[in-house]
Amino acid sequence: MKKTKAAEKLTAQIVELALDKKAEDIISINIEEITTLTDSFIICSADTDIQVKAISDNIRKNTPFKPIRTEGYEHLKWVILDYIDVMVHIFKTAEREYYNIERLWADGIVKKHQ
Questions:
Q1: Is residue 112, in this structure, part of any structural domain at all?
Q2: pLDDT tens-digit profile of 24-73?
Q3: Is residue 113 part of a domain?
Q4: Domain presence at residue 114
Q5: How many domains does the chain have?
Q6: CATH at 27
Q7: Which residues are within 8 A (CB) of 67 and not within 5 positions of it... i.e. 6 or more apart?
Q8: In what helix (H) or strand (E) does residue 14 lie, and over which residues does it extend?
Q9: Distance (Å, rounded) from C-alpha 92 to C-alpha 88?
Q10: H-only helix segments in 21-108
Q11: pLDDT tens, 15-34?
């Protein structure tokens, strides 16, 4: 599966939208060579439920596409936005440390964003 220009553009846009709401420790992991699940993950975290919601809302409202599926919005501990080629994981900091999904996908190409 080859990452499309549209997926690359969406990834860049989502990273900027997360940064706008002060998301922390933003990384993207290119996993297109590892799985057919998606081309890339974007993972970020926030210290409070309110900030997790703000990041999620900003991404959902300001991307040209709507996610085909959203999970975790009712509890705001780990929100997933599925854009098919790009999957966004917005964690509360403690949950991110607990689940450590970066380790699960460590064979992918990891890029840190600031």
A1: no
A2: 999 999 988 888 888 899 999 999 999 999 999 999 999 988 999 999 99
A3: no
A4: no
A5: 1
A6: 3.30.460.10
A7: 60, 81, 82, 83, 88
A8: helix 5-20
A9: 13
A10: 49-62, 93-99, 101-104
A11: 999 999 999 999 999 988 88
